[in-house]
Amino acid sequence: MKYLKSFKESNDIQAELNRQAPLLKLENNADGDLINTIKSLMGTGSILEISCGNGADSDELSKSGYSVIATENNQQYVDNANQKINCIKHDTKNKFPFSDKYKRVKSCLIKKHGKI
Which residues of 9-44 are buried (b: 16+ CB within 10 A; e: fewer)? Predict the structure, then answer.
């Protein structure tokens, strides 16, 4: 019963996050310092961005020639990001849903997000 309660609470929290989606209102919010650091460390390659939000960083990396795959749990963010990049809906509490074609990802971008 405890699991069912936490599952329901988790779904309620996710539903509220989907309604809010504050990052969709932002424009040009890519982290320039992060992008420059990645460019200085990696000439080219594939990047997996976990919890990409509105996809701004992944979009900038893609424009710079990187092959980018992104994940996000909020469906509104996924829909928005998929207008620019390849974004897969994924809850980081679960195993990654990647097929064999994603095994060549060389770098993984994980950012710590604060509350908005």
Answer: eeeeeeeeeeeebebeeeeeebeeeebeebeeeeee
Number of domains making up the chain: 1
Residue-wise pLDDT tens digits, 76-95: 889 989 999 999 999 888 88
Global confidence as pTM: 0.68
CA distances from 32 to 37, 56, 61, 81 (A): 9, 10, 10, 18
Q: Domain of 53?
A: 2-110
Residue in this structure with the two tokens 């990654």, named with its chain if needed? 96
The string of pLDDT tens digits covering residues 6-30 is 555 666 766 666 566 666 666 777 8
